[in-house]
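Human: Cast an eye over this sequence-structure pair and say how the chain folds.
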Amino acid sequence: MRPRSDFDGNELIRFLRRLNLAPGHFVVLGSGPMWARGLRDRLNDLDIVAKGPAWRTAEWSPGGATLVSGPLSNEPMVCFLDGRIEIASTWVTDEHCVDELIESADDIHGIPFARLDHVLESKLTLNRKKDQGDISILKEELNRRPLALAGC
């Protein structure tokens, strides 16, 4: 992994910081954790799971938010920047424990990003064509280093 020199210059990261979500109550998932660790060159969107005060902040934010139903869960989801930032209260399936995802997140430049094993698990669950490249990269990266696995 290579550290990012462009982290705080990214428009999505700047917007996320301005939302000022409550620490310990949200985590960035999807491909964001790969980008933050230098495993992807571009950050096209941010997928975030939030609970409690972080969810309420997102839900009531005046920053151009749109409230929609999540495509997989039908649960409420808040979208910003024309859907480039999506904040949900659940993740992929019920088997993904939101508390575990948040509590086990890695702090990168002050933002909680999901562990790579959790990212891989969710991409395998979705198993979309667009995720296949990420799945290969994640498997290779996770095979290169020891990992303490924890369940929900």
Summary: The first strand starts at residue 26 and ends at 29. The chain has a mean pLDDT of 86. The helical segments are 11-19, 32-36, 52-60, 98-103, 116-126, 132-143.
